[in-house]
Design brief:
The protein is α/β, with parallel strands linked by helices. The protein contains three helices and four strands, in the order ββαβαβα. Strands 1-2-3-4 form a four-stranded mixed sheet. A hairpin with a 5-residue loop joins β1 and β2. 13% of the residues are buried.
């Protein structure tokens, strides 16, 4: 994760998630409730669930290789 400031000057935590399954959806839903957190990337081996997850949660960058996401 990375911290940047948003337009209001608040620190904003940028989050990348590994996995796009049911638990990840719960976590992403909670993150969406926070104004100081932004989901910017998600990685999963399965392309179809990954695409559905990305569409539901604001189209973060998607990766099928978590190492690529982290680099």
């Amino acid at each position: 994760s990375k911290i940047d400031r948003d337009r209001t000057g608040m620190n904003k935590l940028k989050v990348g998630m590994i996995g796009a399954g049911s638990i990840a959806k719960v976590h992403a839903g909670v993150l969406q409730l926070r104004s100081d957190v932004e989901l910017v990337a998600v990685a999963d081996l399965a392309p179809a669930p990954l695409a559905a997850f990305a569409e539901k949660f604001g189209n973060p960058r998607v990766y099928t290789d978590y190492a690529q996401m982290l680099s």
